[in-house]
Amino acid sequence: xxxxxxxxxxxxxxxxxxxxxxxxxxxxRVTAAAITVGxxxxxxxxxxxPYVAAHHLRIVRGDDGRWSAQDLGSRNGVYVxxxxxxxxxxxxxxxTALRIGHTVLRLRSSAEAVAPELPLAGxxxxxxxxxxxxxxxxxxxxxxxxxNETGESKLIRYLTPALTVVAIxxxxxxxxxxxxxxxxxxxxxxxxxxxxxxxxxxxxxYDQVGEFGAFALSWPALTTYQxxxxxxxxxxxxxxxxxxxxxxxxxxxxxxxAALAALGITVQSLKLSEWRSTYGQAVTLQRLQPPSIxxxxxxxxxxFFAQSEALKASLDQARSREPDEPAESDDAQ
Length: 333
Known about the structure:
Elements: E1 13-18, E2 24-30, E3 34-38, E4 45-46, E5 57-61, E6 67-71, E7 78-80, E8 86-87, E9 89-92, E10 97-100, E11 103-109, H1 127-147, H2 155-184, H3 189-216, H4 221-224, H5 226-245, H6 250-279, H7 301-320
Parallel strand pairs: 3-4
Antiparallel strand pairs: 1-2, 1-11, 3-5, 5-6, 6-9, 7-8, 7-10, 10-11
Helix pairs in contact: 1-2, 1-3, 2-3, 2-5, 3-5, 5-6
């Protein structure tokens, strides 16, 4: 390897190794006019990347003080991040990031200004909020079961939904914690538990309020389109899970989840429309409510009989029409 000339300490630079989320995973101080990068142990910067050559890259400071990177004849080449064009030589600017193999490098000047420090805030554990949210979900679920109770109370009717919710929360939180541990190095089980608890609490609140409004105000649309709210809450929960795993590319993640939610809503709407065209639109609510919470006024007898007469007239007209000629059967053909 060529002999390198040491530059003054004031001209020292830092070579940063970036992770998959553009976070700095390693930083090497460079005080030489030229350094080599590769997997071999005689390099100035050694990378543990099987897709990097033994002597992959040479970074040199010119007489004008500018730095440049030169490919040392590697098989996989040198690329500027975000470009698919292989480069033999790259002038390194402040924002230039190089990709060699699966590793991203960036050169920073020691005189470069950094952002001011963030204010130190007290760390709050997500566990209290998570446990409160889960407790409220169970309370709302048990309240809904109790309000719909029309016969003798049985413990199994209360235990089955509660155990189902526990299983869903445990599996969901564990999966996201594993993903968080793999991609960010921290499981953050309490944070993911708080996120799913918040989502379930939001849906449970809407479920109760929607049932109340549909019965009390005669607005069945609050329950008919409840699946739309469920899809939106699911998308929001997944977004916060992804943000807990990594804060990189949040707009892209939000757009992708919004598109998936729109697709789910569209598909379910088409299925419901087909079902209603076949079996008709149900006008009854799925849950019984106490008559005392009814807020909408009752229809008058005249309006009821007028609707009945209109329905009778349409049925009589349908009966008077001749049915279409049946198609020939396969046997007749």
